[in-house]
C-alpha cells in the first residue's frame, strides 16, 4: 500500500509496509518538490499510478507515483486564487481543479493511463547499502523529484500533455462568497461545492449542468434583551457568530419578549411578547412585515412555527389558549382551548403535522393540524410542564417538568420510554437573601429549557443554575456539565455563604444599613425574576433562559444573565477582543489603512484581536514607511505585540521563499540540478524580512 502526505510545499510518498521484509511500518520512497506554497488537496488516479496536489500558489501539480518515461511531473495553472480541490476522472488522467474564487477548470490529457511508459532501468544502480562510521548498514534515502514550472523543450518532447478544454464560474451572491469545499463522485460524475455563505451547488460534469442548489443558514442566534434583565429595551438582536457582532436590532415590541424563532427558510424571524403581539421580521429588508394579534388582549409566553413556515402558533399565559395564524395572510385560523393552566411551551413535529403544547395543568396535549386541530393525545405527568421539545426526526418528545425530571415519550403510542432525574445535576447556589441552604433550595428547582442535538442522540438542559447539562438520550446519563459563569458578583453563584459576611443576627445581606427601620431588607416573593432594582445593592440571579443547537451540530448557544454565550467545537469562532469600543470595526480599520494612518490601523486591529485582520494590516503597511510606534503600553502588551510579530513573520516565510526563488531566476530558466539550499533560504529570508520592515527597520514596541 502506498500513501502520500504533504508538509508545507513538499509531498512525501510512503510504502506501508516497506518493500522488504523488515520491521518498519512506513518507508519513505519518494519526495516531490514543486509548489512554492502550502499544499491544500490531494487526489489519486484509480490505478494509483499518478496523483495530483493543489497548492496555495494557485497551481496544480501532477506527479507519477513510479518513474514513468513520459510523466514525471506536470504543472497546471489557469487559476487566480487558492486551489480548494482537484479530482481525477474515472480511469483517466483527465483532471478537474476548483479554486476559492469559484472557478472550475477542466483539463484533458492526451494520454490514457495504459499509455504511461515505465522508465528504462539504469545500467549500474548501487544496490549495496552504505556503511557508516560504526559499521552499521544505513538504508538509502528516498528518491527526490524536483518539479519545474517552466521545463525546457527537451523535457517536454514525447511527454504527457494537458490541455484546458473549459473554464466555468459559479454564481456568486457577494464579494466575499468564497468557495470553501468540494467533493466529486467519479461514477456518477457529480460535483458538490460549498460556499462560505452556506450555499451548496450540485453540478454534472464535464458539461457543468446545474442539478440542484440549496442553502444552509449562517449560524445566527437570537435572544431577547428582556431575558437579560434589560426590561426597558424589549428588543430582538440578531448576531453573526463568525464576527461576533450584532448586525440588526428590532425594536417594534413595547414589552418584554418571551420567545424567538427562525422559520425553515431562515429569512424570517418570529418573536412573541407580553405586549400581546407576535411579530415577523424580514432579514432581507430588516423590517416588521407581519403582526399577529389575538381577539382579546393576551400575554404570549411561548411561540412555535411549523416546518413549512406557514403556520404560526403562540400560547397565552392568562387565557390558557393557543392561537393559530397563517403566515401568508396574517389571519387568525383557530383558537385551541383545553388546557386548565397557563401555556408554558409549544413545539411542532418536524416531520408530521402535529403540535405539542405543555401547560401548568400537568398535561401535554398533541394537536392534529390535518384533523381540524383536534386533540390527538393527552399525556399526563406528575408535575407542572415547563418545556417540550421534539427530536429532529420527530419520533420522540422530551418533556421537562417542575419536579426536575426530563421524560421521553413515544407520542405515537402515548408511552413513556425513559426519564432522567436531573435535579441533582443542577447544583443550585445559595442566594444572599435565602434563609435555607442550597441543597434544600435545589429540591424545588428544575430545567426550564431543552434542546436536542442535530443527530438527536444528546439533549441540552438548563435552568436556574450556572450549569448547563448535556445528556445521552439512549443511555440516559450525564455526559458533561458546562459552567457558564465564574462571576461571583451575580447572585446564586456560591454553594455556601461567605462566613465573613455572617453575623450573630444572620447574613449581612439581610441588613440594609440605610433603611433606618427595623424590618431590614424585604425578601423577594417566590417567582420574582428581576428582584428589586431600586435597592442599593442589586445582584441579578444567574440563570439560563434558552438553549439552541446550530443546524450543523458543531456549536450551541445559551442566553444567560451575562449575555449570549456560544460553545463550539471549532476554534475559529473564538472572539477575544482587547479594550474594544464602538469605533473598532473592520470597516474603520480598512478606512484608516486607505487614509495611510498606519499606526491607528494596527492599534485598532490589535484591539479587535482578529488574526486575519491583523495579518492584513501588517502586510498592507509599505516597507518604506519607516517606524510604526505604539502609544505607551505596559510590559504585558509589548510582549503580546512581539509574539504577534514573530507569529506573522513565521507565517509569511512561505511568501518570502517564493519571492526569493523568483528573484534568483534572473530572467533565465532554472536548470534541473539547481536547487536552493535551505540554510541560504533562511538567511535570505531574514534579510528580506528586515528589508520589508519586520526586523529592526520597524519598531513595534
TrEMBL record:
Region (Disordered): 118-153, 675-701
Keywords on record: Repeat, WD repeat
Assigned GO CC terms: Pwp2p-containing subcomplex of 90S preribosome; small-subunit processome
Keyword check for Repeat: yes
Compositionally biased spans, kind Acidic residues: 675-685
SUPFAM superfamilies (alphabetical): WD40 repeat-like (SSF50978), YVTN repeat-like/Quinoprotein amine dehydrogenase (SSF50969)
Gene3D superfamilies: YVTN repeat-like/Quinoprotein amine dehydrogenase (2.130.10.10)
WD repeat placement: 76-108, 250-291, 336-369, 385-419
InterPro entries linked: PWP2 (IPR027145), Quino_amine_DH_bsu (IPR011044), WD40/YVTN_repeat-like_dom_sf (IPR015943), WD40_repeat_CS (IPR019775), WD40_repeat_dom_sf (IPR036322), WD40_rpt (IPR001680)
Pfam families: WD40
One of the GO biological process terms: maturation of SSU-rRNA from tricistronic rRNA transcript (SSU-rRNA, 5.8S rRNA, LSU-rRNA)
Biased composition (Basic and acidic residues): 120-147
Name of the protein in its database record: Periodic tryptophan protein 2 homolog
Organism: Pavo cristatus
Amino acid at each position: 500500500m502506498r500513501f502520500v502526505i504533504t508538509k508545507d510545499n513538499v509531498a512525501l510518498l510512503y510504502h506501508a509496509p516497506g518493500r522488504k521484509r523488515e520491521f518498519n511500518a512506513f518507508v519513505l520512497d519518494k519526495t516531490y518538490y514543486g509548489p512554492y506554497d502550502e499544499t491544500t488537496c490531494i487526489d489519486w488516479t484509480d490505478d494509483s499510478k499518478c496523483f495530483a496536489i493543489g497548492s496555495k500558489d494557485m497551481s496544480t501539480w501532477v506527479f507519477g507515483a513510479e518513474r514513468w518515461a513520459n510523466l514525471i511531473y506536470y504543472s497546471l495553472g489557469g487559476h487566480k486564487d487558492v486551489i480548494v480541490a482537484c479530482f481525477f476522472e474515472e480511469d483517466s488522467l483527465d483532471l478537474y481543479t476548483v479554486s476559492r474564487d469559484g472557478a472550475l477548470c477542466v483539463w484533458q490529457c492526451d494520454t490514457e493511463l495504459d499509455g504511461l511508459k515505465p522508465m528504462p532501468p539504469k545500467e549500474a544502480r548501487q544496490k549495496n547499502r552504505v556503511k557508516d562510521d560504526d559499521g552499521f548498514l544505513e538504508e538509502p534515502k528516498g528518491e527526490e523529484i524536483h518539479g519545474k514550472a517552466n521545463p525546457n523543450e527537451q523535457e517536454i518532447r514525447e511527454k504527457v500533455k494537458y490541455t484546458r478544454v473549459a473554464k466555468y464560474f459559479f454564481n456568486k451572491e457577494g464579494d466575499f462568497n468564497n468557495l470553501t469545499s468540494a467533493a466529486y463522485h467519479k461514477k456518477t460524475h457529480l460535483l458538490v461545492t460549498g460556499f462560505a455563505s452556506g450555499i451548496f451547488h450540485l453540478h454534472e460534469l464535464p458539461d457543468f449542468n446545474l442539478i440542484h442548489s440549496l442553502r444552509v443558514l449562517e449560524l445566527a442566534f437570537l435572544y431577547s434583551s428582556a431575558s437579560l434583565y434589560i426590561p426597558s429595551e424589549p428588543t430582538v438582536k440578531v448576531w453573526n457568530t463568525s464576527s461576533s457582532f450584532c448586525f440588526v436590532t428590532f425594536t417594534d415590541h413595547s414589552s418584554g419578549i418571551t420567545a424567538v424563532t427562525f422559520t425553515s427558510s431562515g429569512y424570517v424571524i418570529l418573536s412573541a411578547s407580553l405586549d400581546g403581539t407576535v411579530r415577523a421580521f424580514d432579514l432581507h429588508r430588516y423590517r416588521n412585515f407581519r403582526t399577529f394579534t389575538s381577539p382579546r388582549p393576551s400575554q404570549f409566553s411561548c411561540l412555535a412555527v411549523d416546518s413549512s413556515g406557514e403556520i404560526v402558533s403562540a400560547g397565552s399565559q392568562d387565557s390558557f389558549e393557543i392561537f393559530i395564524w397563517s403566515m401568508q395572510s396574517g389571519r387568525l385560523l383557530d383558537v385551541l382551548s383545553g388546557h386548565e393552566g397557563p401555556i408554558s411551551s409549544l413545539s411542532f413535529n418536524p416531520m408530521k403535522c402535529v403540535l405539542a403544547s405543555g401547560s401548568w395543568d400537568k398535561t401535554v396535549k398533541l394537536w392534529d393540524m390535518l384533523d381540524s386541530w383536534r386533540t390527538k393525545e393527552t399525556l399526563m405527568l406528575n408535575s407542572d410542564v415547563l418545556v417540550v421539545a421534539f427530536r429532529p426526526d420527530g419520533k420522540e418528545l422530551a418533556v421537562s417538568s417542575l419536579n426536575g425530571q426530563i421524560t421521553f415519550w413515544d407520542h405515537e403510542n402515548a408511552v413513556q420510554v425513559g426519564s432522567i432525574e436531573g435535579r441533582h445535576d443542577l447544583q443550585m447556589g445559595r442566594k444572599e437573601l435565602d434563609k435555607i441552604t442550597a441543597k434544600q433550595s435545589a429540591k424545588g428547582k428544575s430545567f426550564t429549557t431543552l434542546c436536542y442535538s442535530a443527530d438527536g442522540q444528546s439533549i441540552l438542559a438548563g435552568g436556574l443554575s450556572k450549569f448547563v447539562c448535556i445528556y445521552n438520550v439512549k443511555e440516559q446519563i450525564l455526559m458533561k456539565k458546562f459552567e457558564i459563569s465564574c462571576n461571583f458578583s451575580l447572585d446564586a453563584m456560591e454553594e455556601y455563604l461567605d462566613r465573613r459576611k455572617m453575623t450573630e443576627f444572620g447574613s449581612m445581606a439581610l441588613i440594609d444599613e440605610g433603611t433606618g427601620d427595623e424590618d431590614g431588607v424585604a425578601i423577594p416573593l417566590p417567582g420574582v425574576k428581576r428582584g428589586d432594582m431600586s435597592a442599593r445593592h442589586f445582584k441579578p440571579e444567574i440563570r439560563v433562559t434558552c438553549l439552541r443547537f446550530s443546524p450543523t451540530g458543531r456549536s450551541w448557544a445559551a442566553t444567560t444573565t451575562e449575555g449570549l454565550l456560544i460553545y463550539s467545537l471549532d476554534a475559529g469562532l473564538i472572539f477575544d477582543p482587547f479594550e474594544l469600543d464602538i469605533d473598532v470595526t473592520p470597516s474603520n480599520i480598512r478606512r484608516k489603512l486607505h487614509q495611510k494612518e498606519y499606526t491607528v490601523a494596527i492599534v485598532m486591529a490589535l484591539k479587535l484581536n482578529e488574526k486575519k485582520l491583523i495579518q492584513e494590516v501588517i502586510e498592507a503597511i509599505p516597507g518604506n514607511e519607516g517606524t510604526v510606534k505604539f502609544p505607551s503600553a505596559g510590559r504585558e502588551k509589548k510582549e503580546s505585540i512581539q509574539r504577534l510579530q514573530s507569529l506573522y513573520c513565521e507565517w509569511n516565510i512561505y511568501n518570502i521563499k517564493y519571492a526569493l526563488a523568483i528573484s534568483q531566476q534572473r530572467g533565465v530558466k532554472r536548470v534541473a540540478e539547481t536547487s536552493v539550499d535551505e540554510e541560504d533560504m533562511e538567511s535570505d529570508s531574514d534579510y528580506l524580512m528586515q528589508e520589508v520592515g519586520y526586523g529592526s527597520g520597524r519598531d513595534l514596541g
